[in-house]
Amino acid sequence: MLEVKDLNAFYGPVQVLHGVNLSVAASEIVALVGANAAGKSTLMFTLAGLRTTHTGSILLDGEPIGDFPAYERVPRGLVLVPERRRLFPFMNVIENLEIGAYSAAARPVARDTLDEVFQLLPVLAERRKQVAGSLSGGEQQMLAIGRALMAKPRVLLLDEPTEGLAPIYVKLLFDLIVNLRRSGLTVLIVEQNVHHVLRTADRAYVLENGRIVLQGQGESLLKDERLKVAYLGL
Amino acid sequence: MTTLGQLVISGILIGGIYALMSIGLTLIFGVLRIVNFAHGEFLMLAMYGAWAVTTLLGFNPYVAVLAIVPAMFLFGGIVYRIIISPGLDKPHLVVVFATMGLSIFLQNVALMMMTADLWDVPPIFSHAVIVGALRFKAELLLGFLITILCTVGLQWVIRATYLGKAIRATVQDGEAAMLMGIPVPRIFLITFAGGSALVGLAACVMMPLFSVFPTVGLNFVLIAFVVVVLGGMGSIEGALIGGICIGVVQSLSSYYVAPAFGQMFFFILFLLVMIFRPNGILGQKGAATIGIND
Questions:
Q1: Among A111, A137, A212, B13, which is least packed by CB within 10 angstroms?
Q2: Tell me: the pLDDT tens digits for B19-67?
Q3: 8 Å CB contact of B181 and A151
Q4: pLDDT tens column, B142-155
Q5: Average pLDDT over residues A148-172
């Protein structure tokens, strides 16, 4: 579904990713873990088409999308929920969701998608007229995901979705991810919460200093001594 | 008392015109975060256009709106593509000097083609509007009504339409907007062209009231900058209020002090607002960095 080959990414002259290869199959949940500054968010931004320049290829269903600007990757089904949610703070819940359905493919079915999102995330239905900036952290994260779902993604990229969330929302969020996969969505998730994410994910990649140093099945990686080394930098 | 009432109402009406010519500037600043220093020359160009349609083709300036507004939309789009867009990701001064250069260029083109003569169009209405003891030019009253319609209409577009929501999303978080599939460069193009089209509308409304000459923009752009900063940069209602304040101050001081001092008094007002309410009347704190008011 999503395939990354020999990806090098740069912020100006600074190279952050070095020869990254990874693939995500349809309806798979793949986790990307690693210490701070390992390049996880850089990889997510590069996949989404923001901020970095890159060499190497990014293929979505075999189609090279690496040269498209961010806003042309969305209609092709690749949607990123960025770190720190990045809602439109002065717009209400409904308006944020409407913006999610901006792309030409998503807009005609926005009404139906909205019902689905409300069913999946009932808290959003309760808060529909509330301004996004006034929601709690957990509600904001739900809105960020709901907004991305409005775009009808086939591959959803989640960057640190549990950051700063109360435990109850962390559980809710992982349940939601499993739910979404059941309905056919493909998920690539960056997470600090290693234990939780590796138990949920089918497979995982470990990123260290911009290189993939380890990969494997989710649960079995947890027992791997090398993960601790990569993660803690020991 | 009648004199005072007459002066205040005339001031409000002329202030409406000032607001109309400033809305495009504040809209462009609010969304693109750039100041178009050629704004006055856009107005000059559009006024020549309105003059030409009126004088050469025999239509009245209000009918010229149908030609000038789309023409200015197109002109704005071309300027955005060629001059603004390449400078957007460079340091701020690049766009500042690019638009200043454009301003000087347009002034000189106008000087070459139209000479320094003043051109105007004959009055549209032969009678003033009389209400009780007050009387004012019908052109001013009509201009004011157009301003109100335009402000309300633009607010509606920004609040209620899909394009308007995309514009607000772009202002609040441009990166997040792109991640939601909004083609931000296109939103910028439409906003810049739309702001230029509004200058076209203002020019048609102003043509029956003022003469046009190559540096006419300089006279008005100064007022427009004050209107925009006074009302709050990026605020459309703010531009209306700022325009009216300046119109009234100018009208009162011209009568009670001396016409030559009109500008001095509105700059005093401007300084007072800057000292006591530095974000403008309706401006949000930090509007220059976070965007148009919501």
A1: A111
A2: 999 999 999 999 999 999 999 999 999 999 999 999 999 998 999 999 9
A3: yes
A4: 999 999 999 999 99
A5: 92
Burial class (CB within 10 angstroms; exposed 0-12, middle 13-18, buried 19+) of B16: buried
The per-residue pLDDT for B289 is 45
pLDDT tens per residue, range A171-223? 999 999 999 999 999 999 999 888 889 889 999 999 989 999 889 887 888 88
Name beta bridge partners: A187: A29, A156
Domains of chain B with CATH codes: 2-290 (1.10.3470)
pLDDT of A231 > 80? The answer is: no
Give residue ranges of A with CB < 8 Å to any B CB.
48-51, 69-72, 74-75, 79-80, 82, 86-91, 95, 98-100, 102-103, 106-107, 147-148, 151
Q: List the domains of chain A with CATH numbers.
A: 2-232 (3.40.50.300)
Is the CB of A91 less than 8 angstroms away from the CB of B162?
Answer: no
CA–CA dist B206, B183 (Å, integer): 35
pLDDT at B238: 92
Q: Which of B180, B284, B285, B292 to mutate to test the interface with A (most CBs of A within 10 A)?
A: B180
pTM over 0.90: yes
CA distances (Å), B148 to each of B142, B144, B145, in order?
Answer: 10, 6, 5
- Find the residue in B nearest to A131 (Cα): B294
